[in-house]
Amino acid sequence: MKFGGTSVADIDRLNRVAARLIERAKAGDDVVVVVSAMGKVTDDLIGLAHQANPKPCKREMDMLLSTGEQVSIALLAMAIQKQGYEAVSFTGAQVGIITDSVYSKAKIVRIDAACVLEALIQKKIVIVAGFQGRTVDGQITTLGRGGSDTTAVALAAGIKADACEIYSDVDGVYSADPRIVPKAHKLDTVSYEEMLEMAASGAGVLSMRSVEFARNFDVVIHCRHSFKPADVPGTIVRGEDPSMEDAVVSAVTHDTNEAKITIRGVPDRPGIAASVFGTLGQNNVNVDMIIQNISDAGLTDISFTAPEDDITSVTSALEICLKEIGARTWNIDRDIAKVSIIGAGMKSHPGITAKMFKALAEEGINLDLISTSPIRVSCIIAADQAETAVRVLHTAFGLDQE
Ligand code: ADP
Ligand code: ASP
Ligand code: MG
Questions:
Q1: CB 246 within 8 A of CB 394
Q2: What's the pLDDT at 296?
Q3: Exposed, middle or buried: residue 33 (CB in 10 Å: 0-12, 13-18, 19+)?
Q4: Which tens digits make up the pLDDT trace of 347-388?
Q5: Is the C or the N end of the chain the one with fewer CB within 10 Å?
Q6: pLDDT for position 247
């Protein structure tokens, strides 16, 4: 069971989570729980770091951010013990969550988890800090924003749990972010493929890495509401099976945390794109969309998008590599948003892209970059039009719930 930041934001909520865990343990389940930092603690720590140093080093950043989860695991253990049940908390390093050494977005390479199983035998509720691990040589790492979901799914796979339940302030995965589309409806089941596309395009309800893990290790995820009764069903995320209904469009997502980088006057010859994107890759920048324009007099323009969090790495990578290849100028536009439509049924339905463009055009929304996958279409638009775009598309594809 994994509880996110809002579910453990204060002692009252921690107590309610504790009661829920004890109820499950008393019903006979072995309970392992992963928790995030309380409320907005991670954001606050990031704020503090930038006050200390506008360009904080990533190792120290991970050292700092991992403390958020360490606070909530200890407090949750205390709350459970206060209610008369045994509990023990562990950091990621203690449970043997071994990661690579890419600070701030480390990938889990293996989980040992012997101490988790040991504590379960002693009938304790086991609490594990989300979002963190350690390298083979003992350095503390974090898994990227929203990384507690990944801890939960990886741990579920590692200990071969019967179920993996992710609790948050929504009762499941919706056809759009319910905070901006009041008419969004809850989806009963979502396939890994659709959920991957949704998570990758901004549906913050599950982190993308956690869905990748779930798909690779066949972990069925149940997304549920932290404080609704135990019999209220959430959304099941699992492998596709023939009984699943293939909606043409099942969800509309948006992401306002990307930036668009445009490089102008790049020499148009083989090897240039490899050099630019190779350097970005070496700097661990997750490049998303890429567009290269038709060349003019041997020069071309390249635009791409990347997470805003990666901008410092983008800047240092481009400064070096553009000097070498001799590009004219480059700039960063942060005022963009990506809106996407996702649906497994898209594979067999032509005309979906045109319908999307028409719906956006009717609202006077201009499209900047476009990219597609077999089950997704994404457009980059102006950031201030994102919410309108999501609502318009939700209506256009018949997803509104009256
Ligand atoms: P936690 O802190 O528990 O990890 P998050 O804030 O990361 O929770 O995720 C839950 C939030 O995800 C919801 O409050 C909701 O606003 C947002 N969200 C975005 N897209 C969706 C979606 N398609 N379905 C459900 N929730 C979504
Ligand atoms: N506390 C971390 C974050 O805010 C991890 C998580 O909540 O999943 O990103
Ligand atoms: Mg989250």
A1: no
A2: 82
A3: buried
A4: 888 899 999 999 999 999 999 999 999 999 999 999 999 999
A5: C
A6: 81
- The ligand minimizing its distance to the Cα of 3 is 1
Q: Does the Cβ of 68 fall within 6 Å of ligand 1?
A: no
**Residue 138 burial (CB count, 10 A):** 7
**Is the pLDDT at 217 greater than 90, yes or no?**
yes
Could you tell me if the CB of 152 is within 6 A of ligand 1? no
167 CA from centroid of ligand 2 (Å): 13
Q: Is any atom of ligand 2 closer than 6 Å to the C-beta of 39?
A: no
Q: Which helix (H) or strand (E) holds 7?
A: none
Mean pLDDT, range 120-134, rounded to an integer:
98
Q: What is the DSSP string of 190-253?
A: EEHHHHHHHHHTT-TTS-HHHHHHHHHHTPPEEEEETTS-TTS--EEEE---TTS---SS-EEE
Nearest CA to ligand 2 atom 4: 42
Q: Which helix (H) or strand (E) holds 49?
A: helix 41-52
Residue 244: the pLDDT is: 67
Is 39 within 8 Å of 5 (Cβ atoms)?
Answer: yes
Q: Are strands 140-142 and 132-134 parallel, antiparallel or unpaired?
A: antiparallel
Q: How confident is the model at residue 269, as a pLDDT?
A: 86
**With DSSP H G I counted as helix, E B as strand and the rest as coil, what are the percentages for the chain, rounded to 5?**
40, 25, 35
Q: What is the DSSP string of 112-169?
A: --HHHHHHHHTTPEEEEETTEEE-TTS-EEE--TTTHHHHHHHHHHHTT-S-EEEEES
Q: Which two tokens stand for residue 216?
A: 């690779």
pLDDT, residue 294, reads 82
